[in-house]
Amino acid sequence: MYGISLIVQRDIRLALKGGSDGAMVVVFFVLAAILFPFGIGPDTELLARIGGGIIWVVALLAAMLSLERMFAADYEDGSLEQFALSPVPLGLVALAKIAAHWLTTGLPLIVAAPVLAVFYHLPADAFLPLVVSLLLGTPALSLIGSVGAALTLGARRGGVLIALLVLPLCIPLLIFGAASIDAAVAGQDTAPHLMILGGFLLGALALAPWATTAALRQAIE
Amino acid sequence: MQGFSGKGLGCVRGERRVFAGLDFDVVSGRALLLTGANGSGKSSLLRIMAGLLRADAGMMLWNDADIADDEEAHRTRLAYVGHTDPVKPALSVIENLSFWARMNGRGTSEDTALIQFGIDHLADMPARHLSAGQRRRLTLAQLAVGQNSIAGPPLWLLDEPATGLDDAAVAMLANTVLAHLTHGGIAVISSHGGALDTAIEGHAARLDLALFAR
What we know:
By secondary structure, chain A is an all-alpha fold.
């Protein structure tokens, strides 16, 4: 556990000192979401109806942006080798890197999301499902994305490859994330959608770190 | 008396056989200098010794016990320095050093380690301002943290550690390695010749990888 907290602390400090791209991800998230009303026009009813889905799609794309760098810097400078040789098991290292990735990119998205909800005229009832669905969905994105990030280490154009690998796997998250907000807008029960999202998160938590660890080992060889 | 040995090691990279039937044996207080042309497998052998790469044949023993039986114990007894410097440009010199010292549970003698490699005046400087040679010194300073204490690893695997170092730094490195050896440590070092080899010659055996090429 001590090893995990050391890595998380280091990665957060790196993010705060501008060594990573957490801020860029949030700016992309907000900018991309703001583009849609300009393209569609100021129809508040339409925007309220599609807002939840757009916020989720843009969150997905913003997360893709940051995935490429999740392990790349540690791979290039040899830190990954040293992690593999440290007494901390590589699986826990992967878990720590995923946690740090979520804290530096996923969490800021959740903070920014309510601002966008206001922008899209989402009803007040939809705010809580929006935040909760992102709270359950973005860690799952980091977990699933970590597999793609680890598999594409050392590959050229890794970023595009990650999107091709990871985006199809994220479609269920998108469906239920957006559906929970739609349900709230329509005045229906949001709990089933959120529970399914929670199920995806637990499934990803159980499976993704194993796959990521195996891929990292492959990359080090 | 600790001993590290390998029997019948073979390595295949891509489709090419790099070496085969390689034996080595090194005991406490001695160093093994790996020599051979580029591509003869010095780095591959060191990575196999560290457990980063699987040997395609053969086995390695530590005190006559098969290393494959307890890889975790092997990890804690070795320090590996590769071609790259695991240094984060945004963190300061001392932060970089402490991070790895804590990750590896190597104690808290970071300050003396920096002095040992002559970069103590840079302790609070962000590592992005370091020159390549200074960054290399910082990487090597990790060897000096916890050195000769119970927390220090007995087996050092150094892949061309003197690359990019000036004469003064090579002397510091040689002194550090000699101190490690006189305290009963083991070192395996790949080299292209130079001042480091000369300095530790008296404690070292040579292993020419060209002999095992096929």
